[in-house]
Specification:
alpha+beta; three-stranded mixed beta sheet; Helix Hairpins; 3 domains; 15 strands; 21% helix; 28% strand; four-stranded mixed beta sheet; Chaperone, DNAj Protein, Chain A; HSP40/DNAj peptide-binding domain; single chain; elongated
């Protein structure tokens, strides 16, 4: 009788994992479903028997001490039948043919937008490189005028069953058909243009309707706009990630736009009606007499469009009073006269506000 270690090609001090790995490799090569050679079945039996003995601690110990470890009597213990059955026979049971069609992959695209585009929303058209349905076969994977044929080996079942002798008698095994790969059909004449995939690589235009109110980092899902699926399978999705460029003049606070207006000192003192240029064009604002730096003027409805719902946010205009630093002699004289008239005004420390319980709000 052949030495079990030599049959599996392992050393006598091989670990249980090494023995199991060697057995699985040989069993895959010698299994009757994949190896039609005349001696494959006998070698498969020897390999299986060697593994049954060496995978059981008691049987291996008995074998190493000179015991036969043979077929007779099935000396007690588990000889790994569950592993054999699950690994190579697929747990039995035919599951029927599987679909050749597969869903296409999703894609992530990044789109740069200006703050103006985010404010009103924008339509864009971008060119993408992706998989599209093959126009020649229309996703069928077959040459025009031909069609898939039922597999002669599995007769459309996608599975083949064979009877194999084992230590427990005859066992019916079930595996995906090696001819049709489990699909139950074969493609005698694959489409030449797509090489039997039902799809080809191409560049196409993607129309985007970006709504107002999107924010930096937001992702929009375009269902069914991704790659075409294999063999006519459904398209994947496209995810659009928004990136908003910084504007030179305007900022954003939620759905409100923000900006700062520099006001000459005399306009801050006397007040003034003026205009500022916005995304909506010129907008009137009213500077009240005595307006201070840091005060905010709210222009209703001139902010960012609401992403959900209707309407828009506001435009928040912050005042920055500009103190003149280059004066001619006449202007200096006027300021001196003003200082004399306002001689009661002094430089003082401003008291900070406290909360209801006297705590410093700045902390």
């Amino acid at each position: 009788m052949a030495d079990h270690y030599e049959v599996l090609g392992v050393a006598r001090d091989a670990s249980a994992d090494e023995i199991k790995k060697a057995y699985r490799k040989l069993a895959r090569e010698l299994h009757p479903d994949v190896n039609p050679a005349e001696d494959a079945q006998e070698r498969f039996k020897l390999v299986t028997h060697a593994y049954e003995v060496l995978s059981d601690e008691d049987q291996r110990r008995n074998y190493d001490m000179g015991g036969q470890g043979g077929f007779n009597g099935f000396p007690g213990g588990n000889f790994g039948f569950g592993d054999i059955f699950d690994t190579f026979f697929g747990g039995g049971g035919g599951r029927g043919p599987r679909s050749r069609a597969e869903r296409g992959q999703d894609a992530l695209l990044r789109v740069d937008l200006t703050l103006r585009e985010v404010t009103f929303g924008v339509q864009k058209s971008i060119e993408i490189d992706t998989a599209v349905i093959c126009k020649t076969c229309n996703g069928t994977t077959c040459q025009p005028g031909t069609s898939p044929k039922t597999c002669d080996i599995c007769r459309g079942a996608g599975q083949v069953q064979r009877e194999v002798r084992s230590l427990l008698g005859n066992i019916v095994t079930s595996q995906p058909c090696s001819v049709c790969k489990g699909f139950g059909q074969v493609i005698p004449d694959p489409c030449v243009d797509c090489r039997g995939q039902g799809r080809v690589r191409a560049r196409r235009n993607l129309d985007l309707n970006i709504p107002a109110g999107v924010d930096d980092g937001l992702r929009l899902q375009l269902s069914g706009q991704g790659e075409a699926g294999y063999a006519g399978g459904p398209n994947g999705d496209i995810y659009i990630e928004v990136q908003v460029r910084t504007d030179e003049v305007f900022g954003r606070d939620g759905d409100d736009l923000t900006c700062t207006v520099e006001v000459p000192l005399h306009d801050a003192v006397l007040g003034r009606h003026t205009q500022i240029e916005t995304f909506d064009g010129p907008v009137d604002i009213n500077l009240e007499p005595g307006v201070q730096t840091g005060e905010t003027i709210t222009v209703k409805g001139k902010g960012v469009g609401h992403l959900r719902g209707t309407g828009r946010g506001d435009l928040l205009v912050t005042v920055q009073v500009m103190t003149p630093h280059k004066l001619d002699s006449k202007q200096k004289e006027l300021f001196k006269k003003l200082a004399e008239l306002r001689s009661a005004d002094t430089v003082t420390l401003r008291k900070h506000k406290t909360g209801f319980f006297g705590k410093d709000k700045r902390r």
